[in-house]
Structures are given as structure tokens and as C-alpha cells.
Specification:
The structure is a single chain. By secondary structure, the protein is an alpha+beta fold. Among the domains are: about 105-245, D-amino Acid Aminotransferase, Chain A, domain 1 (2-Layer Sandwich); about 325-474, Rossmann fold (3-Layer(aba) Sandwich). Helices cover about 40% and strands about 25% of the residues. The strands form 4 sheets. Strands 8, 9, 10, 11, 12, 13, 14 and 15 form an 8-stranded antiparallel sheet that branches. Strand 12 and strand 13 form a beta hairpin. Helix 15 crosses helix 16. The longest helix is centred in the middle third of the chain and has 24 residues, at about 180-200. The radius of gyration is 27 Å and the shape is elongated. The model has no long low-confidence stretch (mean pLDDT about 90).
């Protein structure tokens, strides 16, 4: 992206195509932090950097174009450098928004390293609670943005959703398992800060303060999470600080915090709306910090017609991490017992499913939203629709889905069965729903459809057929 005008054009094109979250039920339960979605993946950790933005420990509804890509690629850039000092959790970055990492036992402490008295540290000092919060004394005569005579470590608790609280060294040592471990963490954190500061200075920047996180991988101290990104670090331009220490030009998320304070928001009450102008400016700043620190432009991996979610999903499929999905739509929560039978059969074959309630008559917009979302996915998907009586659900799904639809009529007795089966069998033209009346058979039909694009599933199906035959041949 050449020049600010072209950057702004690219940002505006991406305003409606940001990555808000990545739901992959086949991979199990998501660990959703403030800006990252994480999954366990065969003993490793799949970390997806989304375009969500947070401030004052609140996550905003609006998304910031390119933010996740910047954070992920910048973190990887610095993590590779950090391996000179400490092992890191980084294995690879198979996608611009994705890191594959070693699974770690995470210490519940955020390690904040500061070279200057600014931000929350200055406010604590001004309010005469700095020493109480951290057990550290500062010399007299300091003003806002003063360079500290000695780099300091000010730990806090680590919270995914709530507020991080300041703690002293004794409490930090307790949380990580002892003084010896904490002393090693402090030593490494200061070494990382020296490394990051030297790199920033070479790019005309000051690394003002930053956050590190640590854990254990195979009982070895390991650096985890992001490193020296604009979400975890504060940067100032060196020349602007030298010219006006009270108002240096900065590259950090502090710009958003200051904007929010100007709106009267510091974490409490309703979230302000981030309009197009502030979202564009934030995106420009994220791109600027990436280009300044790395000397490279951000790589636009996605084609304009391809969503970030689709790109990531395609990568996971190619690597064998992600297979097909059976989307089970129920017209009513009372159909849950039928859905449970379907799910149990799917689980025997290791096929992922997602069960949702969506009445075609009462909330057709919800049904269409689910169908449209799956239509955009590159994953193989089969819909199983469970509904009785007029069974509008199967018809609406079949008319709008690019994926196969299996109608599974719900009925409570023979009279109900006659009504429901006829409704499913007599759908109008161009609504191609297959009708199966047994939950297990509906699941098996979906499994066999998905097996055509999954060789491992195909082998499991063939093994199941062989096992069934053996029971009748004995």
C-alpha cells in the first residue's frame, strides 16, 4: 500500500470486512480474550488475532481494519528476535492473523516494564498511590513523561475480562510460584526491554513502556502472548520527545484512550461508538507502527472477495485441522431430544456440529442469517433441519443454502407423523431438501456426504460399514 491516500482507500474497503471473531466448534471450546480467540489444537495453541479493540479493559463493538494482522505479524517479528534471550511459545504463523504456539501453563501476572513516568504510572504517582500499589519509591521532582533513572517493573494481575490490578513484587512472586521464579522473570523482562528499546531507537522511536507475559512449557520459563506491539507497548517518536517532552508524538493505543477520555469515558458506563473516522485513524496508526518498526509494508493476503474467516478456515482445512460441519437447525427448543440423537451419532464419527434454534415462521431473519453465514464458509457443511407441521424451516433452508439440506420431521404420534412427513415431501420446486425420518440415519446421511471431501472420515465410514456387516455375517 503506497502512500497515505492508498492506505485510507484500503482501510475503507476493509471497514465492513474485519475479523470480529472466529467460531470453530470442531476445534472445541474457544478461549475468547479481549482481542484474541484461542483453541487447543493437538497439543498446541491456535491463536487468532482479531480486529477487536479494547481500552480501559472494555472491548468495543466496532472493529479496526488490519489490526489483527498487524498485531500477529509484529508479535512474530519480535518473538523471533527474543529467542536470543528466552524460549518463546511461537511455532509458526500459518496465516497473517494466526499464530500456532506451544501450549503453556500461563502465570496470572502481567509484567509491565517502564522506562518513563507516563500513563497510569504517572497518574498513580500524581495521586500518591504509586508506592502503595507497587512497593516502589520514586525520586522527588519527577514530572509527567520524565525518563526514569532506572527501568522499573510494575506487575499487575492478569484478567481476560475484568480490570488488571497493580501488585507488588511479593504478591507477584506468590502468583508465579516463588521468589526465585519471579527474580528470573524480572531479569528476562529487563533484558527484553533493552532489546526492544535498542530496536526502537534504531527506527527513531522510544520504547516507553510495555507488557510481557510468561508461562511454563515443559517446566521451562517461556515468553508467551504478544511482544512489543502497539497494543502491549507505548512508543514515542524520539525527535518529537526531544523537542517537546510533554507532548511527544506517539505510536500506541494511548491515542484511543485519550480520545475516549475526551468523550468522558474511562471504562465505566455505556461504550462510546467508534465512528468511521476514528476507526480509520486507528488503522492508520497500527499500519504506521508496523511499517516503522519492521521497515516493511503489511501484506494484504486476502482477495477482496474472500473474507478473513474464509481464508483462515481454508488454511486449517488444507493442514488437516478442520473438517466438515453439520449445522442442526431446530424450529423449536422442544426438538432438542431429536437433535441430541443426531449429535451422538456425529460424535461417534468425530464430526463437528452446531445446534441452533431458529423458527422459519417466527424469526425468518435469523434462519436466513445462519444460512448466509454458512454460505460464505469454505467448509463442507450439511444442514439438518428439525421441524414439524408445515416444516417451513426445511423449505427456507433448502431454497437459500448452497449446502445440502436434510429434513428430519419431528412428530409425537402416528397422526402427527402423517402431517409432518407429507409437509417435508411436498416442498415446492427449487427447494431440494432430502427427507429422512430417523435421527441416526439423518446423521449418517450427513456423514457420508461430508466423507466425499474428507479422506479420514471416508475411512471411518468404511470401517463402520465393515463392522455392521460383520455383525450380520457372524
Amino acid at each position: 500500500m503506497k502512500g497515505e491516500k492508498m492506505k485510507i482507500e484500503s482501510i475503507k474497503e476493509r471497514l465492513e470486512g474485519c475479523l470480529g471473531k472466529l467460531d470453530l466448534p470442531e476445534l472445541g471450546e474457544v478461549d475468547r480474550g479481549k482481542v484474541r480467540d484461542c483453541y487447543e489444537l493437538k497439543g498446541r495453541r491456535l491463536i487468532v488475532a482479531t480486529d477487536r479493540v479494547s481500552a480501559f479493559d472494555r472491548v468495543f463493538d466496532e472493529l479496526i481494519p488490519f489490526k489483527g494482522q498487524v498485531l500477529n505479524q509484529l508479535a512474530a517479528y519480535f518473538l523471533r528476535q527474543a529467542e536470543e534471550i528466552i524460549p518463546t511459545h511461537l511455532i509458526e504463523t500459518p496465516d497473517p492473523n494466526v499464530t500456532l504456539a506451544k501450549e503453556a501453563k500461563v502465570f496470572p501476572v502481567e509484567v509491565i516494564v517502564r522506562g518513563y513516568l507516563t500513563g497510569s504510572a504517572w497518574r498513580d504517582h500524581e495521586n500518591e498511590c504509586f508506592e502503595k500499589n507497587y512497593g516502589l519509591s520514586l525520586p522527588a521532582g519527577l514530572v509527567r513523561n520524565s525518563k526514569l533513572s532506572k527501568v522499573i517493573v510494575t506487575p499487575t494481575t492478569k484478567s481476560n475480562l475484568g480490570h488488571d490490578l497493580p501488585i507488588d513484587r511479593a504478591e507477584a512472586a506468590r502468583l508465579v510460584g516463588g521468589r526465585e521464579t519471579w527474580d528470573e522473570i524480572e531479569r528476562v523482562a529487563l533484558a527484553l526491554f533493552r532489546q526492544g528499546s535498542a530496536h526502537a531507537e534504531g527506527r527513531g522511536l522510544i520504547l516507553v513502556d510495555t507488557k510481557y507475559e510468561f508461562g511454563l512449557v515443559e517446566n521451562r520459563l517461556t515468553l508467551i502472548d504478544e511482544l512489543h506491539t502497539p497494543d502491549s507497548s507505548r512508543y514515542w517518536y524520539l525527535d518529537s520527545f526531544e523537542a517537546d517532552p510533554q507532548n511527544p508524538r506517539q505510536l500506541s493505543k494511548e491515542f484511543l484512550r485519550e480520545w475516549l477520555r475526551a468523550q468522558g469515558f474511562e471504562g465505566e458506563g455505556p461504550l462510546p461508538v467508534l465512528g468511521e473516522e476514528i476507526r480509520t485513524e486507528l488503522s492508520l496508526r497500527y499500519l504506521e507502527v508496523f511499517e516503522t518498526l519492521t521497515g516493511r509494508e503489511i501484506i494484504e493476503k486476502s482477495e477482496k472477495s474472500e473474507s478473513i474467516e474464509s481464508r483462515i478456515t481454508s488454511m486449517l482445512r488444507e493442514r488437516g485441522y478442520l473438517g466438515g460441519l453439520v449445522s442442526i437447525l431446530m424450529g423449536s427448543a422442544s426438538d432438542g431430544a431429536i437433535a441430541d440423537k443426531v449429535v451422538r451419532t456425529l460424535e461417534r464419527f468425530g464430526v463437528a456440529s452446531r445446534v441452533e434454534v431458529a423458527s422459519a415462521h417466527k424469526v425468518p431473519e435469523r434462519v436466513l442469517g445462519i444460512i448466509e453465514k454458512h454460505n460464505r464458509s469454505p467448509r463442507p457443511i450439511v444442514h439438518i433441519t428439525i421441524a414439524g407441521r408445515s416444516n417451513g424451516l426445511s423449505g427456507v433452508a433448502a431454497a437459500n443454502s448452497v449446502h445440502p439440506v436434510i429434513a428430519l420431521p419431528a412428530f409425537k404420534d402416528q397422526a402427527d407423523y402423517l402431517v409432518n412427513i407429507h409437509s417435508s415431501l411436498q416442498l415446492p420446486s427449487e427447494t431440494p431438501a432430502l427427507t429422512v425420518i430417523d435421527p441416526q440415519n439423518a446423521a449418517m446421511a450427513a456423514i457420508r456426504i461430508l466423507s466425499h471431501s474428507d479422506e479420514n472420515l471416508r475411512k471411518r465410514v468404511l470401517a463402520g460399514i465393515a463392522e455392521m456387516k460383520s455383525r450380520f455375517n457372524d
